Amino acid sequence: MSFVTTQDGVQIFYKDWGPKDAQPIAFHHGWPLSADDWDAQMLFFLSKGFRVIAHDRRGHGRSSQVSEGHDMDHYAADASAVMETLDLKNAVHVGHSTGGGQVARYVAQFGQPQGRVAKAVLISAVPPLMVKTDRSPEGAPIAVLDGLRAALAANRAQFFLDVPTGPFYGFNRSGAEISDGTIRNWWRQGMMGSAKAHYEGIKAFSETDQTEDLKAITVPTLVMQGDDDQVVPYRTAALLQHQLIKGSTLKIYPGFPHGMHTTHADTINADILAFIKD
């Protein structure tokens, strides 16, 4: 397996497939998953001639289960360590959910200043701010997030079945085409990681104000979200991202769930490909 060691000694696992001289696409996964969540995208874009890269966030998947650093600053710095080690240039960065926040901070604070980023794609992403505050009055009440932490601490294995079985993929909706394999794969990825990283990651994805990150992005950016996202409501996420990122392109998908890159991979992949080639 391939790893990059960060400045604070954390081993970050990554996959790097395809021709080294092809345009790279880097994928940033959501909470509490791993690089494996991008299988449908990595195989698709690999078949289109791209170089595809994905890494496991610290404390997730095969990366080190360290005690500290479970915050957006470390997430972005770790991502940069991978990109710098591989010397990726002209890269497209694609992030889902928490990974969308990671992309926003990475692009704003590392990728753009280093001249490494060509375009960005935010899928069902958490920025600018998920929790309800004076600045985000329509955000999620802190009690909801405290409930997630309590459920994780009480029985992580059961909680990690309940999330994909219910709101993540919209499998709780009438008429949904439920995939047991998808649920099991979500559970598998989650249980590979650290309970501490996942617990503290809830604060990272919900309480990090990324307004300035979004304002700082100047590369072409595609913002994608379903209007039936039960995890990150699109009105406080995609619509605001589009407002804050100059010149961004917005796509709202009727009826699509939070994990739409899995449930509707054909549609999402085709739209990302068209955006990259545009």
UniProtKB/TrEMBL annotation:
<protein>
    <submittedName>
        <fullName>Alpha/beta hydrolase</fullName>
    </submittedName>
</protein>
<dbReference type="GO" id="GO:0016787">
    <property type="term" value="F:hydrolase activity"/>
</dbReference>
<dbReference type="Pfam" id="PF00561">
    <property type="entry name" value="Abhydrolase_1"/>
</dbReference>
<dbReference type="InterPro" id="IPR000639">
    <property type="entry name" value="Epox_hydrolase-like"/>
</dbReference>
<keyword id="KW-0378">Hydrolase</keyword>
<feature type="domain" description="AB hydrolase-1">
    <location>
        <begin position="24"/>
        <end position="263"/>
    </location>
</feature>
<dbReference type="InterPro" id="IPR029058">
    <property type="entry name" value="AB_hydrolase_fold"/>
</dbReference>
<comment type="similarity">
    <text>Belongs to the AB hydrolase superfamily. Bacterial non-heme haloperoxidase / perhydrolase family.</text>
</comment>
<dbReference type="InterPro" id="IPR000073">
    <property type="entry name" value="AB_hydrolase_1"/>
</dbReference>
<dbReference type="InterPro" id="IPR050471">
    <property type="entry name" value="AB_hydrolase"/>
</dbReference>
